[in-house]
Write a structure and sequence with these properties.
Layout lengths: L14 H24 L2 H14 L5 E5 L5 H9 L4 E6 L2 H13 L6 E5 L12 E7 L8 H11 E12 L7 H21 L4 H11 L4 H9 L3 E8 L4 E7 L4
Parallel strand pairs: 1-2, 1-4, 2-3, 4-5
Antiparallel strand pairs: 5-7, 6-7
Helix pairs in contact: 1-4, 1-6, 2-3, 6-7
Length: 246
Amino acid sequence: MAAEDIKPYDPSRGKTEQVRDMFDSIAPAYDFMNRAMTMGIDRLWRRRAVKAVADTAPAHILDVATGTGDLAITLAKRIPGCRVTGIDLSQGMIDRGSAKVEAAGLSGRVSLQVADCLALPMPDNTFDCVTVAYGVRNFEHLREGYSEMLRVLRPGGMLAVLELSTPTSPIAKPFYRFYTRQIIPRVGRMVSKDIRAYTYLPESIAAVAQGEDMLDIARSAGFARASFRPMTFGTCTLYTAYKPQK
């Protein structure tokens, strides 16, 4: 089953609507659960993505599925002078992210808004870089999402996608499976009170395209020079690709 077919609540409803409702529901617990689930390693993964982006010296970045703005804020802090626009389906996540942006003193350089990644409200060729952290598995139509990100990128612009993935190591895989299938859903239910959200998480990770399969989707949408880098025994992967020059 593809990630597009994995839905948080009701198989008969559209995924986009359900993902929005889910993140509205878990917004108060989201930052705590991110740290707890990854034991803080998500910060390392984010730093590696930011370094890859910073090497291209972008002036304007779009952060898709920005959540509570962690990646957007880190990009603005680490890349002098850059502007970051973050979009997310969930108003609850945007509200929390906007408060964090203001607290960081970055309101002049980071702006967050509610928008759908499958219908971005930006003109063609707007951004030097597009980033997504832990969001593509929530896209209702993955290839369409990649096509939209390609559309708003300037020629030569970079796409950087961080996504959770399933380790292939026979040593790490059983521990990972136990942790994601047993521990995370139980902790998530206690902290967020959403019975399904943290069961959906490991299901969506297991179903999302990984490695070369993810690159093939990006290439089919028109991206070039696509590559991937597994991290921490393959539990997270950094994908990069570029919009071809005209």
